[in-house]
C-alpha cells in the first residue's frame, strides 16, 4: 500500500480508501452487516487506513456498521464522516444550519463510538444557509475537540475560495473516474495550487468499471438506486461504455489483475488525486481493492486508458 499526506495536514492516508455508502443498505442492493464488518477488517488488514462514511448512508446505518467494525482497531484508522445531508425517507435533504450540524456530529460520534472524528466534511453545499453560519458552528465544534480537520465534498472552485477565506480546509471529495473527469479542468489545478488533498469517490462508476456486468443490469430501485446517481447504467449510455470496459479487461489480463484494479490504479496515479475511495461488500472485494495500489501501470497503458476515456465521455448523455 502507498500512503500520502492529505493536503498540508499530518494525516497520512492510504492511496486506496474504503467508501461505505453501500453499508447503509439502501442504495447498492442488499448488504449484510456482518459481511460489511468483515470487509472493513479485511481492508485494514490489507493496508487501507482511510474509512469514509456519512450520516446520509442508510440514515446513520453505515456509521453504526463502521463503529462496530473498528472496535479495538481505532488507532489503525483515519475516520472521515460528513455533515449537512440527511435522509427524509427516500429523499436526501441538504441542511447546514448550525443546529443541524451540532446534532449530526453528536449522533455521528455516538454511532461511530469514537471521541473525535479525524476528517469532518461538508457533504454537499446548502443554498439555504449562509456558509458563514455553518463555518462558525463548525469552528466551535473543532475547538471543542469533536473533530481534527475540516474538509468539503462536491464544492466548486468558487465555494472553496469562499470557505478558505473563513477557515482552513485540507481536502475536497469530488466524483472522479475514467467515466467522469470534469474536475480536471478547473478543480484539480486549484487543489494543486493550494496544496489541498483529494479523496475521489465513484472510482468504479457505481461498479460498472469492474467489468462484471455482461449485460446492462436492471436494478431493484427500492434497495438499489445506484443507476439514479451513476448515469452510465442508462440504456443510452450503456453501449458507449463498452469499448472502455473492453480495454480495461485487456490491460487487466496483461497485468494479471482485475478490471476494477486497473480502474483504481489509473485513478490513484492521476495528478492531484490523493486517495481513491472504493466500496467493498465483502472481504474479497476489500482485499482486491487494496491490492490495486501494489502495482504500476506503464505510461503507455495510462495514456491508452486516458485516450479511450476521452472518447467515451464525449459521447455520454449526462
Automatic annotation (TrEMBL):
Q: Which UniProt keywords apply?
A: Oxidoreductase
Superkingdom of this entry's organism? Bacteria
Provide the protein name. Answer: Predicted oxidoreductase
Q: Does the keyword Kinase apply?
A: no
Gene Ontology cellular component annotations, sorted alphabetically? cytosol
Name a GO molecular-function annotation.
Answer: oxidoreductase activity
Q: Name one Pfam family in it.
A: Aldo_ket_red
Q: Where is the NADP-dependent oxidoreductase domain?
A: 16-308
